[in-house]
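Appendix B, record 7
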Amino acid sequence: MHDTIFVGMDVHKATISIAVADGARGGEVRHLGNFLNRADHVGKLVERLSKTGGQRLRFCYEAGPCGYGLHRQITGLGHECAVVAPSLIPMKAGDRIKTDRARCDDAGEAAPRRRIDRRLGS
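Structure tokens (predicted):
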């Protein structure tokens, strides 16, 4: 798993908050910032992240009203992308902080439970 970089995203209509973590267990989670939720900006971001020395990228975000357009774009660029149900994202007991940064960090910890059926869409 050391050859993998995990990318957690908190997706909104206008912006995406991004956090990345190395594949090592207990590795550092870095918040990259907020980016516009537009296809050209997402493409540049994925291109920039893929220049990490041959490491595989695995993207993950919480399912929501924004649909699967982001999923289609990332998988179309040749990377794995999991869309996770909100109930499957782990949260610490009593943790009620819902900032973009905290949510994208949490999304990166979620494991995909089910593959996305390509016939589904929004």
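Remarks on this record: The two ends are 32 Å apart (CA to CA). The chain has a mean pLDDT of 79.
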